[in-house]
């Protein structure tokens, strides 16, 4: 009952907060909350993508150490779209920091992956959507 009475008094304006905050602190608090929210969405998207990847192409994790690197995500997106992964795709996303031998090795590993034709189109589409979400989140971060 006391909480209800206090809420009514605050609503009527009978009670004022005893401490007022600077506008900058309130804005910082809002930004912090939004950042925490966006971070949790990013983490959840990665977890969902990993779970779907294990269903669609469980051997893909052996190809890339970091599944969520830009190169890995672009290659996976290309595979899920039904495109042939070429050396140019791997080299373009990997940049110049990795050598041609690394690129050829990755391309051979990708081509050796078992086909994901046994999975449903819905699983592949869901994984493609998750990959797109993670890529977008990484590009805007």
List the helices and strands and how they pair.
Blueprint: H1 2-12, H2 23-56, H3 70-80, H4 87-94, H5 100-111, H6 121-140
If you had to describe this structure to a student in words, what would you say it looks like?
The protein has 141 residues and is mostly helical. The chain has a single domain, classed as Helix Hairpins (Orthogonal Bundle), CATH 1.10.287. The protein is built from 6 helices and no strands. The radius of gyration is 24 Å and the shape is elongated.
At a glance:
With about 140 residues, this protein is mainly α.
Q: Segments where pLDDT lies below 50 for 5+ residues?
A: none
The largest β sheet comes out as: none
User: Can you give the mean pLDDT?
Assistant: 83
Count every beta strand, where a strand is a DSSP E run of 2 or more residues: 0
Number of helices: 6
Strand content: under 5%
Report how far the terminal alpha carbons are from each other.
46 Å
CA-based gyration radius: 24 Å
Structural class: mainly alpha
Q: Which architecture per CATH?
A: Orthogonal Bundle
What form results from the Cα inertia axes?
elongated
CATH topology category name: Helix Hairpins
* Order of secondary-structure elements: HHHHHH
- Helix residue percentage: 55-70%
The total domain count is 1
CATH class group: Mainly Alpha
